[in-house]
């Protein structure tokens, strides 16, 4: 894999530091590697090509590459040029989403995880966080509700989106799944049934069961079915923004209809907005559900827009519920790591949603998968946001397709994995498009073979 001089120049940008040019170049490439914009194994442009692209001397490029080599970020070989390496070696991909409790196998291609790589600027945000950390080290480091800086940044984002919010309405959590468990612990009774849109996110189902609640599925985007179910169950958890796995987005009309139903039923409504910022085409003109119903409890997360490794989420709630949420929060743990919170605070203040480069990458990957599925005779609504495509297969063979894919070295989740009650949906398949376009290209031959072998091609 190679990166051109012009592409590397666009990544480095024009915002040059006041220090030596070679350090600006070296630090910029190092940050791009940390962010995932320049990948392990990428061959850097030759010094003769990069120097004019950056309007510096060839000697400056030589010194920049020497600094990168000294720090362990490059390897130079005679005749092969300078190649990016990760200090300590290339890491594995980490564990996937729930997959029958099997450990991740690094030898297999992974079309399971619906989470993108780290956002550009992540390392810089951590570096700024380190500069701020000294303000907190004199204390004990326990912030069960979250550090004030981050709570203010989250509150400001809701205010900017049309729902005036104070920092005292925000509880920072260790991810969205943790937020679900906290909210259910604080606001519902043990062993009670809780409605959840089906198909639903497997980790949400696990979080509900983990706190002793019983998930009951209701059809996605069907307010009438939810109204009928609420006659029997008094709490619901709804995903409104680019629902995982379907990618559906609730418009203002549906939000207003749901608000009317919840007010009439006296429902405790928990709304997951984890994917709200993952629009890919045109930014949707919708307000948070709390703008329609002030009693709504809202859940958000940094994992889909900034990086899953941050492990930070949050709850936005009416002030009268924050005390109960705080008590429930302490039953899970004593707070999230301060440095990660400082880094997220910086990211939310500089770019709260997807980075433009990430949006371009996701669109490219989505379009490749979309074209592939259409050629196979699969059907789906083309998602304008979110991180996956929810396919209806020509015949109910989703589990067979996933098994055939694994024989081809490709991990996938069939539609049945997203059934809230654990049954059905064998006519469906979720394909995340969070791999880079070139990685998607590597996946498609194995997926085509699996689809043909399982009878899932028209």
3D architecture notes:
The chain is an alpha/beta fold. It folds into three domains: 80 residues, Winged helix-like DNA-binding domain superfamily/Winged helix DNA-binding domain (Arc Repressor Mutant, subunit A); 107 residues, Alpha-Beta Complex (Aspartate Aminotransferase, domain 1); 228 residues, Type I PLP-dependent aspartate aminotransferase-like (Major domain) (Aspartate Aminotransferase, domain 2, 3-Layer(aba) Sandwich), CATH 3.40.640.10. Helix content is 42%, strand content 13%. The protein contains 15 helices and 14 strands. It has a seven-stranded mixed sheet, sandwiched between helices. The chain has a three-stranded antiparallel sheet with strand order 11-14-13. A hairpin with a 3-residue loop joins strand 1 and strand 2. Helix 14 crosses helix 15. The chain is globular, with a radius of gyration of 23 Å. The chain starts with a helix and ends in a 5-residue tail after the last helix. About 2% of the residues have low confidence.
Topology at a glance:
Elements: H1 5-12, H2 21-35, H3 47-54, H4 58-70, E1 74-77, E2 81-84, E3 109-110, H5 122-137, H6 148-160, E4 170-173, H7 176-187, E5 193-198, H8 202-210, E6 214-219, H9 223-230, E7 235-239, H10 252-265, E8 268-272, E9 297-301, E10 313-316, H11 319-332, H12 338-350, H13 356-376, E11 388-392, H14 398-407, E12 410-411, E13 413-414, E14 428-432, H15 437-453
Parallel strand pairs: 3-12, 5-6, 5-7, 7-8, 8-9
Antiparallel strand pairs: 1-2, 4-10, 9-10, 11-14, 13-14
Helix pairs in contact: 1-3, 2-4, 3-4, 5-12, 6-12, 7-8, 7-11, 13-15, 14-15
């Amino acid at each position: 894999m190679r990166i051109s001089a012009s592409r590397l120049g666009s990544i480095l940008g024009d915002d040059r530091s006041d220090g030596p040019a070679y350090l600006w170049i070296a630090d910029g490439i190092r940050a791009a590697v940390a962010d995932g914009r320049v990948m392990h194994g990428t061959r850097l442009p030759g010094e003769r090509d990069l120097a004019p692209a950056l309007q510096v001397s060839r000697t400056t490029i030589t010194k920049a590459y020497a600094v990168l080599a000294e720090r362990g970020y490059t390897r130079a070989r005679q005749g092969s040029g300078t190649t990016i390496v990760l200090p300590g070696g290339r890491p594995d991909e980490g564990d996937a989403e729930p997959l029958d409790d099997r450990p991740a196998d690094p030898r297999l291609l992974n079309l399971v995880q619906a989470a993108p790589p780290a956002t550009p600027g992540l390392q810089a945000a951590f570096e700024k966080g380190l500069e701020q950390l000294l303000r907190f080290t004199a204390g004990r480091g326990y912030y069960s509700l979250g550090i004030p800086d981050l709570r203010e940044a989250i509150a400001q984002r809701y205010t900017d989106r049309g729902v005036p919010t104070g920092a005292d309405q925000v509880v920072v959590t260790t991810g969205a799944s943790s937020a679900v468990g906290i909210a259910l612990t604080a606001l519902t009774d043990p062993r009670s049934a809780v409605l959840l849109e089906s198909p639903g996110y497997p980790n949400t189902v696990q979080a509900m069961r983990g706190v002793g609640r019983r998930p009951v599925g209701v059809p996605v985007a069907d307010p009438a079915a939810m109204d009928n179910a609420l006659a029997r169950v008094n709490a619901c958890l709804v995903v409104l923004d680019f629902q995982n796995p379907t990618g559906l987005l609730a418009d203002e009309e549906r939000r207003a209809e749901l608000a009317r139903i919840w007010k009439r039923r006296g429902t405790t409504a928990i709304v997951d907005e984890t994917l709200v910022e993952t629009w890919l085409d045109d930014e949707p003109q919708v307000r948070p559900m709390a703008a329609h119903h002030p009693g709504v409890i809202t859940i958000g997360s940094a994992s889909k827009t900034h990086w899953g490794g941050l492990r930070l989420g949050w709850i936005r709630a009416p002030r009268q519920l924050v005390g109960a949420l705080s008590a429930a929060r302490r039953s899970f743990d004593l707070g999230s790591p301060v440095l990660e919170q400082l880094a997220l605070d910086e990211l939310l203040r500089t770019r709260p949603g997807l980075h433009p480069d990430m949006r371009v990458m996701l669109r490219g990957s989505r379009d490749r998968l979309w074209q592939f599925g259409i050629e196979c005779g699969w059907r789906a609504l083309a998602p304008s946001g979110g991180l996956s495509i929810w396919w209806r297969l020509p015949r109910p063979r989703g589990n067979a397709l996933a098994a055939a894919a694994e024989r081809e070295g490709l991990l996938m989740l069939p539609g049945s994995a997203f059934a809230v009650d654990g049954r059905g949906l064998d006519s469906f398949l979720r394909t995340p498009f969070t791999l880079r376009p070139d990685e998607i290209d590597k996946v498609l031959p194995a997926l085509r073979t699996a689809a043909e072998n399982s009878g899932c091609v028209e």
